[in-house]
Amino acid sequence: MDFAFTPQQETLRREVRQFIAENLNDEIVEEMDAHAGAERPRGPSSEVSALFKKIHERGWLGIAYPKEYGGQDGDRVSQYIVEEEFHRAGIAITLGGSGAPAILAAGTEEQKQYYIPRLINREITFCLGFTEPHAGADLASLRCSAVRDGEDFVINGQKMYTTAAHSATHIYLMARTDRDAKKHDGISIFIFPMDTPGITVRPLWTIQNNPTAPVGTTYGASRTNETFFDNVRVHESCLLGEENKGWRVGAMGLNLDRVGAWRYLISVSRDEDIVNWVKNNQFGDYSPAKNPAIRDKIAELWVEAQVCRLMTMRSMSIVERGDEFTYEGSAEKVWAPEHGVRITEAITQMLGPYTTLLNGSPRAIDNGIFAHNVMGSFQSGINHGSVQVMRDQVARRGLGMPSSRKSTTAGAR
User: Fold this and answer.
1) What is the DSSP annotation of 119-139?
2) What is the pTM of this model?
3) Domain residue spans in the chain?
4) Class assignment of domain 7-94?
5) Which pLDDT belongs to residue 314?
6) Is residue 24 pLDDT above 70, yes or no?
């Protein structure tokens, strides 16, 4: 394995950094952060729109997607580099939320032609309609139903924690289409507009709402949502993949969505934050950088962060080669979020009581970002699949171990 980037990729990184230095400012970053919590009627300013037009003109959106769908036929590592640099600068340029990789892998030609170019130019964004009040970690127990009526499906039910449902243009929804099938069967994926009649979005304010988290906080969104579907009628063309075969499509989409810079940086940005802070700050005459215990702990956690990087690079290499991608995304989803929790907890120990002060407190460190990171880091072990469920995926798909139920039955015999 080559652990280094190619000269061409390093040239691309320098070009992106120069572009960011010339075109990005704090006002744009703050507006982008505020826009994430705004309702759909509110659009980006002309300055933000102009920024993304420039990014799109350089071909930096959807680099790894085929040209016939608006991409560049490039490699995933180059796309990773672009996403990484922009994410570090404070804005995300991933493709419109979960959905794009699954559409490319399981969608019809018509769906690919319609959605992928519009996701690349940010005309369409998705929210994810998976979790329900009675189906979180055990997603296969979902109750939201889609009943066929001729060429249509009629959807009824509720989804929880549909982040961005208040601002997304479309939803990527998992619903039960056959109540008599086994739990993991009889499930289908639908993609359709959020302005379809019968959809109600209600806010769920998060722990980061008051006070609001500073820009750059891990999982610092002030709201998520609960979404209700009351006789929502969609055409069968909204099906993604085969009817009643949505479990595989959904799992594949989540796995592919975990591969990339955004997921990686969620977990390791805190390592970089504490290294930069310790190098450049001190409490009066006391310098944390000169404390050997702090130096050793930072070094230990930095090594863990490099494991996150290598796991991400491995996943990208597998997808790039077209090999089967089974348990690797799940393994990454276990290691990286748990590392994120460890680093945020360690930071509070290193810097003491000042890291408990939230945004707005006169003595808060860097607008309270370390305190808000502590609150946000724990949900990373639950979002998009809990680490316990991911461990089960690694055991069964990676190690070939039986499920706990089968194991218990075999033992009884």
Assistant:
1) HHTTS--EEEE--BTTBSSSG
2) 0.87
3) 7-94, 126-243, 258-412
4) mainly alpha
5) 86
6) yes
